[in-house]
Amino acid sequence: MSDRLKVLPQYLLPKQRLTSFAGRVAGAQGGTMTTRLIRWFVGKYGVDMNEAENPDIASYKSFNEFFTRPLKPGVRPLAQADFVCPVDGAISQFGSIDDHHILQAKGHRFTTTELVGGDATLAAQFRHGSFANLYLSPKDYHRLHMPCDGKLTRMIYVPGALFSVNPTTARGVPNLFARNERVVCVFESAEHGPFVLVLVGATIVGSMATVWHGVVNPKRTNKVSEWTYADQDIVLKKGEEMGRFLLGSTIVMLFQQDTIAFNGDWAPERSVRLGELMGNRPA
């Protein structure tokens, strides 16, 4: 069966209602029912609770509290590199931006302008630059960290669809990452120039949150929202937490031309860990 046929049911599902329901369940403090849900999830997806700061499944009051659990200090050391991987997950695609087109999967591309919500001026800064799409599966650690030092300048909430973002869907749904709901975080680095981290929402992703704002999309709307931070000094260091997903999704990164040479061991579908070498400045 082709990937397009496999994802056909997603066009028919009431994704908004499913996501709202999942968000209510994940946020509920259901006592033993919550513990059973978490225990089932850990078993089904093979979650390694030995890496969690709190490995006691029964102690989590809600599924969201479990899902966004912090890791033990030191289990994700930072590589000696200009850019480190910001998440646990798997590589969807990465490489050079072809003029202003990003590779989603074989046969599917989308533009940087579409990704950032239609801001052509912002997108133009990354023409012929570099990108990386990293997928977080249900079993992964779901806090997001900084690939390098950066000062926050803008955040844009872009409403959209709520398709799944798993590899099959990425191959089967055109413009997936520029079609789904997303939060665009724009940073400026003294050493590396501007870069963008895009948090892409998905089916049953209850919400997306950043450390400076909290939950960005408590109520989904059809309007683009924007926040600017020129009058604030919000600086996050390499490896520092910047946000989190309440249920799994994808992060897309944009860098300017001649800013990053990616890790030579990276390849599509390869697993990655927070803190590992993502790349260095080109020689």
Secondary structure elements and pairings:
Layout: H1 3-6, H2 8-12, H3 15-27, H4 32-45, H5 63-67, E1 83-84, E2 89-96, E3 101-105, E4 108-111, H6 112-115, H7 120-124, E5 130-135, E6 143-145, E7 150-158, H8 167-172, E8 182-189, E9 193-200, E10 207-210, E11 214-215, E12 225-228, E13 235-236, E14 241-246, E15 250-255, E16 261-262, E17 271-272, E18 277-280
Antiparallel strand pairs: 1-18, 2-5, 2-17, 3-4, 5-15, 6-14, 7-8, 7-12, 7-13, 8-9, 9-15, 10-11, 10-14, 16-18
Structure description:
The protein has 8 helices and 18 strands. The mean pLDDT is 88. By secondary structure, the chain is α+β, with helices and mostly antiparallel strands. Strands 2, 5, 7, 8, 9, 12, 13, 15 and 17 form a 9-stranded antiparallel beta sheet that branches. Strands 6-14-10-11 form a 4-stranded antiparallel beta sheet, with no helix packed on it. Strands 1-18-16 form a 3-stranded antiparallel beta sheet, with no helix packed on it.
